[in-house]
Amino acid sequence: MTSLWWIRRDARLSDNPALAEAQASGLTAAVFPWSPAVQRWSGRRRAHLARVLGSLHADTEGGIGVRDGNPADVVLTAARQCGATTVWAQREYSPAAMREQDAVQRSLADDGRELRFVGSPYAVAPGRVLKADGTPYQVFTPYRRAWREHGWRRPARAADPGLFVSCASDVDLEQEAALGDAQDGLLSPPDFTESTWLDRLSDFLAGPLAHYAYDRDLPGVDATSHMSVPLAYGQVHPRTLLAVAADAGAADHSTMQAVAMFASEVAWREFHADVLFHHPEALRTSLRQVISDDAWAAGDDADAAFEAWREGRTGFPLVDAGMREMAATGTMHNRVRMVVASFLIKDLHVPWQRGADHFRRALLDYDHAQNQLNWQWVAGTGRDAAPYFRVFNPDAQRDKFDPAGAYVRRWVPDLDTPAYPERIVDHKTEREVALAHFRREKRPSPQS
Length: 448
Hints:
The chain is mainly alpha-helical. It folds into 3 domains: 3-120, HUPs (Rossmann fold, 3-Layer(aba) Sandwich), CATH 3.40.50; 122-154 and 194-278, Alpha Horseshoe (Serine Threonine Protein Phosphatase 5, Tetratricopeptide repeat); 293-442, DNA Cyclobutane Dipyrimidine Photolyase, subunit A, domain 3 (Orthogonal Bundle). 52% of the residues lie in helices and 5% in strands. The protein has helices spanning 17-24, 36-39, 43-59, 71-82, 95-110, 140-150, 173-184, 194-206, 212-215, 228-233, 238-251, 256-278, 300-311, 317-329, 334-347, 352-362, 368-379, 394-401, 406-411, 427-442, and strands at residues 3-6, 28-34, 64-68, 86-89, 114-117. It has a 5-stranded parallel sheet, with helices on both faces. Helix 5 (95-110) links the parallel strand 4 and strand 5 (114-117).
């Protein structure tokens, strides 16, 4: 009997519990719905997704179908055509993804078929780690401690490419990749095959991991895993990252501190997903108010400042380097992400939601929970957020983390030339404005 694998954010053959369960009963068909939600993605994300699915199609010798339409319709039609009474999928936890899987489940049930969930995009699924009183954690450090105590399974066995049966497609992936490139191209498209990402992970563990605890904050040094892109498309599972890093630490005890730090970064990703699961309104709404609504900048001047920030011409080299890196590559070093976000919110006084919306369009590694909750962290509005009165100084950050200027010189070649723009604001002045807004919000109301 043929089963059906509904591909979601798990476009991989290794460590894929849903696919492993689908293949447990024998032959498996696979389908990915090229849905209206996907069609609203930025061109660069659609182009990369098309290439990811194309590589998976090649790895399965044509065993996956990519079809245009709503997931509820696409999955049901595929199940009927391949005779599958059971559809296997990983469970997702973002608000839109949960609505989507509910619709698919109802559609299949009405037709006498079953949707079965196995696994998630996380080592520990959102909602699993709770305090003793059954409530979710609000602070990262105790969450991380409980997350580690909860633990996770070892990676699932790899799928057998020979067990796939063909599933027809009506989406031309090469054409979609070309269209995405034409609309919103990158300087150079990144890797898109599962095997290449796994090789890069091995290279990271064999080299940069040893110095990860410190070097991860240096944007001019190639010291991070670069796994944010394959994580976003499901080509690598975080459980795989944790398992192979732990094995590397066990083999070389001198790297244990670095392994712990690497695991902590994975925990932040899972914490943000947990927060969004418990607080779906966090996609658009601040979880706490730190300044009055009337303190945010608006009008033509605010729009002009936002455009200068977006285009990397603020006159602050580290901010401009980060924004230009993202425009060219679809990614940005994490330390620099914090700096550019702080600059928009606290130097330009633009609401975090506007910056988050631009990142959604510009980032190749976009993830709902990571993007929104990281922005809320910088804004001081989220769970366990940096306090609003913490304002990153772009010059001090540059001096500390890019002292030789390797990162800035790469992305801002016009620095120290007449073409480089003047500074659009005075940081010291705008910092005082931001702090004044904060103090005004915290001032007790006068008694009547």
